[in-house]
Automatic annotation (TrEMBL):
UniProt-listed GO biological process terms: lignin catabolic process
InterPro entries given in the database record: Cu-oxidase-like_N, Cu-oxidase_2nd, Cu-oxidase_C, Cu-oxidase_fam, Cupredoxin, CuRO_1_LCC, CuRO_2_LCC, Laccase
EC class (word): oxidoreductase
PANTHER family per UniProt: LACCASE-5 (PTHR11709:SF431), MULTI-COPPER OXIDASE (PTHR11709)
Keywords: Apoplast, Copper, Glycoprotein, Lignin degradation, Metal-binding, Oxidoreductase, Repeat, Secreted, Signal
EC number in record: 1.10.3.2
Protein name (database record): Laccase
Taxonomic lineage from the root: Eukaryota, Viridiplantae, Streptophyta, Embryophyta, Tracheophyta
Length: 552
């Protein structure tokens, strides 16, 4: 008995010792984590671009809005006060929101919007993410001007997994309308036609040297000879994939969507709306001024798009000054053609995770979701000339598995789920399109009419989920950015044409697939993603953009 007691005592001491070690490790892990508090005041602000002054909606009077800088593990508390005339929410794009779904921000998905005069405090912790994300309004088209960066650095004392850069720069690519963006989408909703395209693209809110009344405020990014700098690029545009380059310089891509990637070299980036890319650039060219440039990757045949080029300037600190009275020379940048799908595809297929990943091999939920456009017949009582300006007197809409999403108008889906409020949504979003067809071929007009509804697909906690995202050629095929709230996912493969499970599964990267929160489904093609449903709450997967009306 005494031997037993001695053994039990030693066992208890051992367990106690390891318990203390566990608590100490956790204490050290969170010791450097901080709680940051910020205040966002959403308000109308006069801003002049392209020779015209418009009263736009901003945060704290800034366009773009303030950049939030944190370390991994920090907790954010952001009080948002709405002093604008529109209802509004703020979405923290790409943040995992572990057990904080109420703070994700999509209007009528996880919260009701803030009415004018109302305030709401978003609280969440950045966990397991490092790199670049961003925030934006998630109510109609307010995000055209209400957006900003979210920079996540490693915990204090933890280095980057690459050589520490000498300096860092954040470049937000955006769109500018010589109009109130809310009026633009309101008019498109009224007519059923395509919304007017933007008047220019911007870099950090500035159109650049090639646009009227703009050159004196062009964004300048400093660099010195021999130094290596980190540039964080965000596509904050509403409706357009963008090519991005810097004259005579190459990029080493090291991160995307707040995840590190296996470094690779390229001279051009392609970012879909919502995507971020972190690159290293070395000052290895003769000291001078070099154009930073971005313009559209437009994959939809026959669809209008903004064909402007926005610019910033990479300026060497030792660049020679021009002679008195002589113009300042800036070296020109070369961008791919607007429809260069080959370059766009080569870039997206270059991504790999930095290390071998722990990927679920067995799948519990296998979804097949078609993504693209649709057309709705003109309502019987509508004025066809005024309200049905889509093709052949129809109205444009978006479609996923022949369903066109309808936002609730009084209660959010998360609130309805939590409180058991009936009649807000149905749990019958189809696991596959109701009818199989040649998705990227000549689609029968009988399949162009999606059904409207607020339909969800429930997942069990811990389910291993695979989704085939299949683009369609309905109306026209185009590259579709797809964003999943509350999750990152692994992109296993992408391709053109119709996904074939018998042959295309052999193309899956099951070793080091990239981890993203937004995927660009190729024009008339497909993308396969996989993730574990380990984050309870309401999440929405949405077409992040379309040239026409969208569901996001």
């Amino acid at each position: 008995m005494e031997a037993f007691n001695n053994a039990a005592s030693k066992s208890f001491s051992t367990l106690f010792f390891f318990g203390l070690l566990f608590l100490l490790a956790n204490f050290l892990l969170f010791a450097n984590a901080k709680v940051q508090s910020h205040e966002f005041v959403v308000q109308e602000t006069p801003v002049k671009r392209l020779c015209n002054t418009h009263n736009i909606i901003t945060v704290n009077g800034q366009y773009p809005g303030p950049t939030i800088e944190v370390n991994e593990g920090d907790t954010l508390e952001i009080k948002v006060t709405n002093k604008a005339q529109y209802n509004l929410t703020i979405h923290w794009h790409g943040v995992r929101q572990i057990r904080t779904a109420w703070s994700d921000g999509p209007e009528f998905i996880t919260q009701c919007p803030l009415k004018p005069g109302a305030s709401y405090t978003y609280r969440f912790t950045i966990q397991g993410q490092e790199g670049t994300l961003w925030w934006h309004a998630h109510s109609s088209w307010l995000r055209a001007t209400v957006y900003g960066g979210l920079v996540i650095r490693p915990r204090e004392g933890t280095p980057y997994p690459f050589t520490k850069p000498k300096r860092e720069s954040l470049l937000l690519l955006g769109e500018w309308w010589n109009a109130n963006p809310m009026d633009v989408i309101k008019e498109a909703t009224r007519t059923g036609g395509a919304p007017n395209v933007s008047d220019t693209f911007t870099i950090n809110g500035q159109p650049g040297d090639f646009q009227k009344c703009s050159s004196k405020d062009t964004t300048v990014v400093p660099i010195d000879s021999g130094e290596t700098n980190l540039i964080r690029v965000v596509n904050a545009a509403l409706n357009q994939q963008l090519f991005f380059t810097i004259a005579n310089h190459k990029f080493t891509v090291v991160g995307a969507d707040a995840s590190y990637v296996k470094p690779f070299t390229t001279s051009v980036l392609m970012l879909g709306p919502g995507q971020t890319t972190d690159v290293l650039i070395t000052g290895d060219q003769p000291p001078a001024r070099y154009y930073i440039a971005a313009r559209a990757y437009a994959s939809a045949q026959g669809a209008q798009f903004d064909n402007t080029t926005t610019t910033a300037i990479l300026e060497y600190k030792t660049a020679p000054c021009p002679a008195k009275g002589a113009p300042v020379k800036t070296l020109q940048a070369t961008l791919p053609a607007y429809n260069d799908t080959v370059t766009a595809t080569a870039f997206t297929r270059s991504f790999r995770s930095a290390k071998k990943v722990s990927l679920p091999t067995d799948v519990d939920e296998n979804l097949f979701i078609t993504v693209g456009l649709g057309l709705q017949n003109c309502p019987p009582n509508a004025n066809k000339a005024q309200n049905c300006q889509g093709p052949n007197g129809t109205r444009f809409t978006a479609s996923m598995n022949n369903a066109s999403f309808v936002l609730p108008s009084t209660v959010s889906i998360l609130q309805a789920h939590k409180q058991g409020i009936p009649g807000v949504f149905t749990k019958d979003f189809p696991v596959a399109p109701p009818v199989k067809f040649d998705y990227t071929g000549n689609v029968s007009r009988s399949l162009w009419q999606p059904e409207r509804g607020t339909r969800v697909y429930p997942l069990k906690y811990g389910a291993r989920v695979q989704i085939v995202l299949q683009g369609t050629s309905i109306v026209t095929g185009e590259n579709h950015p797809i964003h999943l709230h509350g999750y990152d996912f692994y992109i296993l493969a992408e391709g053109f044409g119709n996904f074939n499970p018998k042959t295309d599964t052999a193309k899956f990267n099951l070793v080091d697939p990239p981890l993203r929160n937004t995927a660009s489904v190729p024009v008339n093609g497909w993308t396969v993603i996989r993730f574990v449903a380990d984050n309870p709450g309401e999440k929405n997967i949405s077409q992040q953009s379309t040239k026409f009306l969208n569901d996001s």
